[in-house]
């Protein structure tokens, strides 16, 4: 399983441009729903080392404090890609430099949880609940955000990619989850007319369960139809690509098709690189 | 299923499956050894899941199994937190199961002293500042376990304690940890020896014999008097300091707030999301008069009018775990391969041993009823009813990824494919409707029965197991 994590990280790097565009272009604004702001959160699990991603090469203490793992300044072999004369980007992230150049990419550096736990587990929990230091918060901050948005809630207002609902989106507000990769558009038994018709007869009431059944089928059909329409238009029926880049593309399509969709979430593992991290070519860099 | 890892003591699993020492893996210059150890340790989580499903599905003592679900959640430990991947199986076997219908104080004590809990809620690091052993990872007071012990395990969040009590209890519990092979050596430091020991069964047995699972480290304990919940706990030096913690557990186990909190949770689990105050009060009274006899508390509940009240009976929305287990029991299929069950539970948001927060999974309709949940349960029911879940197949020799179930994206496509009903001309045998009807007795509505009987035979069992009637209990 461990190797999967690296693969997913590499895929992310390969498809980074697809992932970052919507974040930079349209900042979410809760007080301006008519602007159709959206928020996509990509959680890099495992504690990424920000100082080797956005490198403060202009700070003399940086190289001193990291004699063996500092990314070299721009110009050196394997050196950082200059951002603003002080900070530089890890060379493996060259694919996002065009977005930096056209000012649709920003970095918020040295921002983190005020809680100083050394447990990665607790730290990422706090990132998802939004309550640093409090372990018992049951819901995630994105779910609370969703619940506070104006207007009626629809099942496809918030979409999470992955097999289970992540903590960050769990809570009372309704969230749809879309399986990763090819299975996002996989058929389920309820897609078959005979099965669907039989279950429709079982769930005829107006109780909470019957309503959930009908909402679930509606959300599934919408997601399925959107993914398929886009896939047919864009790929002419070719099998969809896999990995994070594909999921990001899938989410982008869903958001285009659904003007109401507000929140999206991905998690991507493989960032716990503090052993053998290296500088330009260690664990933090992708395979070449 | 031999399930040998479930019989191993925490120290034994640490030696056999724990991480190689940091030094040795650095020396070797690669992280492969760490990765290999992680892979090897998957057997523990796999066997814990196999054991849990085997008992839940086949045990004739179903109340006991419901109580295992209840108490494991109450005293939740997460497989995905560090060393707990090695200890969840032993934790359930040794700390939970023996006491699920016994005395609450015994259950509380067993969980308090189990390395799985000591690690999960960090008490193994809880150290009185300034004591001889306060160094390295053991620098200071860690309140995590003390707080959850009151908030989640005993008194409840409104149980009438304050931050002063949390600190006092944390001080009482300083030094409660787990021992390695040498005095003062915490189990994680066993690492350097693990690799060599692993291949030597004699040394391993000797070491496991000497290793104490729970260990009171007097040199990290705060020996001063404490004021806790209005009582004085007399501080004690040396090994006698352990008695302070026992006294605190006594106070907590016999506190009226604990009686109410546990009774409320049990009534919510078995009777209604919002149980009547009178029922909770009656159960709490039994709890107090029987000194926390769980069996007696359940008897009060079972003999109450509330449990048979039509407003309650059969109305509780099943948790994913209850849904999966009850469906497979009703289908009465032999299970050799639990992977489809484990995968579906993860899809439904309730991976076994995968609850991150110490409060465990909730059991209310609000927590589990969602549009997604219903369609996914139906997918499972149709696949199960059609006999397509491969439950009788050989288990995957690679085992299950219990440590990170949410990051197993390949569960989804396979599960989805398995759940499609068979082509009419051939394929796996569907579950006969009569078998499911026998199991469910008269719990089905006439409307549901009519729809089911009118359907094609290979869909009938799936319809029944995916019906609104079967979603509730």
Protein model, in words:
The complex is a heterodimer of chains A (288) and B (473). By secondary structure, chain A is an alpha/beta fold. Chain A has one domain (2-268). Chain A has 10 helices and 7 strands. In chain A, the strands form 2 sheets. In chain A, strands 1-7-5-6 form a 4-stranded parallel β-sheet. In chain A, helix 2 runs parallel beside helix 10 (244-257) and helix 9 (208-235) packs across helix 10 (244-257). Mean pLDDT of chain A is 75; it is low at 1-35 and 235-240. With 473 residues, chain B is an all-alpha fold. Chain B folds into 3 domains: 1-98 and 191-212, no CATH class; 121-178 and 214-311, no CATH class; 320-471, no CATH class. Chain B starts with 9 loop residues before the first helix and ends with a helix. Residues 181-193, 195-212 and 406-426 of chain B have low confidence and may be disordered.
């Amino acid at each position: 399983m461990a190797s999967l994590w690296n693969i997913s990280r590499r895929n992310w790097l390969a498809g980074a441009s697809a992932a970052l565009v919507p974040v930079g272009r349209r900042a979410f604004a809760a007080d301006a729903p008519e602007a159709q702001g959206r928020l996509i959160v990509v959680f890099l699990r495992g504690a990424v080392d920000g100082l080797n991603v956005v490198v403060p090469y202009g700070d003399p203490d940086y190289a001193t404090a990291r004699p063996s793992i500092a990314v070299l300044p721009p110009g050196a072999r394997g050196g950082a890609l200059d951002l603003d004369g002080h900070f530089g980007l890890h060379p493996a992230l060259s694919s996002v430099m065009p977005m930096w150049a056209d000012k649709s990419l920003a970095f918020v550096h040295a921002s983190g949880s005020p809680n100083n736990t050394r447990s990665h587990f607790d730290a990422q929990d706090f990132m998802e609940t939004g309550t640093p230091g409090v372990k018992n918060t049951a819901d995630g901050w994105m779910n609370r955000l969703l619940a506070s948005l104006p207007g009626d809630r629809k099942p496809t207002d918030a979409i999470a990619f992955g097999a289970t609902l992540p903590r960050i989106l769990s809570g009372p507000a309704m969230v749809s989850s879309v399986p990763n990769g090819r299975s996002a558009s996989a058929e389920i038994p309820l897609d078959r007319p005979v099965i669907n018709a039989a279950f429709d007869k079982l769930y005829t009431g107006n109780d909470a369960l019957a309503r959930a059944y009908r909402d679930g089928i509606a959300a599934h059909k919408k997601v399925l139809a959107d993914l398929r329409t886009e896939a047919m238009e864009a790929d002419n029926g070719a099998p969809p690509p896999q990995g994070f880049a594909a999921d990001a593309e899938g989410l982008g399509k869903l958001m285009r098709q659904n003007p109401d969709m507000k929140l999206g979430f991905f998690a991507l593992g493989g960032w716990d690189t503090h052993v053998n991290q290296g500088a330009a070519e260690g664990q933090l860099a992708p395979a070449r | 299923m031999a399930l040998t890892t479930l019989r191993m003591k925490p120290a034994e699993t640490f030696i056999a499956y724990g991480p190689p020492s940091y030094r040795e893996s650095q020396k070797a210059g690669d992280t492969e050894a760490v990765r290999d150890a992680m892979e090897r340790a998957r057997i523990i989580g796999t066997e814990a899941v196999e054991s849990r499903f085997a008992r839940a599905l086949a045990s004739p003592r179903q109340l006991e199994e419901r109580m295992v679900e209840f108490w494991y959640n109450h005293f939740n430990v997460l497989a995905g937190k560090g060393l707990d991947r090695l200890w969840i199986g032993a934790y359930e076997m040794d700390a939970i199961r023996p006491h699920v219908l016994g005395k609450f104080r015994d259950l509380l004590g067993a969980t308090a002293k189990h390395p799985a809990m000591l690690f999960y809620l960090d008490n193994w690091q809880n150290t009185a500042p300034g004591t001889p052993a306060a160094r390295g990872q053991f620098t200071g007071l860690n309140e995590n376990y003390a707080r959850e012990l009151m908030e989640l395990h005993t008194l409840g969040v409104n149980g009438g304690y304050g931050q002063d009590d949390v600190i006092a209890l944390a001080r009482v519990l300083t030094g409660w940890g787990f021992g390695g092979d040498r005095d003062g050596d915490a189990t994680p430091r066993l690492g350097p020896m693990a690799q060599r020991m692993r291949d030597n069964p004699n040394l391993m047995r000797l070491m496991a014999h000497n290793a104490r699972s729970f260990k009171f480290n007097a040199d990290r304990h705060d020996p001063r008097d404490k004021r806790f919940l209005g009582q004085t706990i007399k501080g004690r030096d040396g090994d006698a300091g352990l008695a302070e913690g026992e006294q605190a557990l006594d106070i907590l186990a016999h506190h009226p707030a604990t009686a109410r909190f546990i009774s409320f949770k049990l009534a919510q689990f078995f009777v209604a999301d919002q149980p009547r105050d009178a029922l909770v009060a009656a159960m709490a009274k039994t709890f107090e008069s029987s000194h926390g006899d769980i069996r007696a508390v359940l008897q009060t509940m079972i003999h109450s009018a509330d449990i048979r009240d039509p407003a309650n009976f059969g109305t509780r929305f099943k948790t994913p775990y209850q849904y999966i287990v009850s469906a497979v029991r009703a289908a009465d299929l032999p299970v050799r391969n639990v992977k489809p069950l484990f995968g579906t539970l993860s899809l439904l948001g309730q991976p076994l041993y995968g609850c991150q927060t110490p409060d465990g999974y909730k059991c209310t309709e609000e927590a589990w009823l969602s549009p997604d949940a219903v369609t996914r349960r139906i997918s499972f029911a149709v696949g199960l009813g059609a006999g397509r879940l491969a439950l009788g197949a050989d288990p995957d020799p690679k085992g299950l990824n219990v440590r990170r179930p949410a990051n197993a994206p390949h569960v989804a496509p396979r599960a989805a494919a398995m759940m499609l009903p068979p082509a009419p001309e051939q394929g796996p045998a569907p579950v006969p409707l009569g078998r499911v009807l026998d199991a469910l007795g008269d719990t089905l509505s006439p409307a549901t029965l009519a729809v089911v009987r009118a359907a094609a035979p290979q869909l009938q069992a799936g319809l029944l197991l995916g019906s609104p009637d079967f979603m509730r209990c």
